[in-house]
């Protein structure tokens, strides 16, 4: 027990780890501060404390912003699944205490663009049922099986899960209406435009090379292309006029309707696979989880 306590005492405070994950995911101290409902100065202090505890720089600072250092990228890769497991444990404990809670696992972009507005509307309709969203890009069959419900990308065939098709995969290029770029006559015309890259190696997601391959266009990513590892960041970059981003129709449609984004060309990638609403086939759904499942399906 004494050895365990000494080991725990050597760990950085949990708030520094949460701040680091938020900054790495959001791509800036300002966005992370907004998400965490604290000041940018507080975020900076937490990151500084963590870097001092680890004796290394987690971010490279540039005039144009920040990016993960080599050490920071490695630390994030180890930390993210641990924070996710901790979050799941907390949600599970709370759900056992409060019988009217429902947990749902999904990726960050699905949570941000598609699920969150629906959770707000569900809460207005069923205020007695609490929905806990557990979001991570490492979402998979096992994490969805541990939650009451999940939203999982694939062909719908999982050994542990029953599934219902939920969101079709329709992907097309978008940019800011203010961005002055020529309208492409063919998909290959897009190759010459400033394309915002999505680094999706940590999860199963379409990138520009996949999109161009769908149209039989050979495309190589430029060495100095602007790159993000989150769909939320690529779409925000497009809104800010930094270039052309891939957009999933289910996520981008509200921004297009609001005039923040516009489609570029009439070309779209339509995949056989899509996002499914999933739940354990070996454990019955609670009454409140069934209510949320049935209501969610009425929104599509």
TrEMBL record:
GO terms for molecular function: DNA-binding transcription factor activity; sequence-specific DNA binding. One of its GO terms (biological process) is DNA-templated transcription. Keywords: DNA-binding, Transcription, Transcription regulation. It comes from the Bacteria. Residues 12-69 form the HTH lysR-type domain. PANTHER family: HTH-TYPE TRANSCRIPTIONAL REGULATOR, TRANSCRIPTIONAL REGULATOR-RELATED. Belongs to the LysR transcriptional regulatory family. This is LysR family transcriptional regulator. It comes from Trinickia dinghuensis.
